[in-house]
Amino acid sequence: MTETTAAAAPFLTAWFEILDSDTPDRILDLISDDFSLSILFSTGDGKATDFAGDRAALVGYLEQRERGTRTHHLLSATTLGQDELFLGEVRREGVPEASFVAAGRVDDQNRLQRLLIGRSSEIRFD
User: Fold this and answer.
1) Is residue 126 in a domain?
2) Which of 45, 71, 72, 114 might form a disulfide with 105, Cβ 3.0–4.6 angstroms?
């Protein structure tokens, strides 16, 4: 990850760094009171899980996550106003597993208000 690329989506870049840390629950401190999300999580077997809702949905997502095995890696990113777009790759113990795209809206208090993530193991952005 280069300094210039990471600066293109600073909030989401920091979000995924925290998510990959030993204390991923810290992301709960970064969401707004009216936060909503949808994380569509496909493992490539024709099935997908949609973690959708508010703070409780994010808590549920965090509870089911494997810690210490998957990491998020930035491929490209951009920001337009309050919206950040982040294209990345998920790696399991360093081996590419899936591609994902995340879109987030950051409010005036620098809190994440909206989050939409799509993940698939069926496509790579090499």
Assistant:
1) no
2) 114
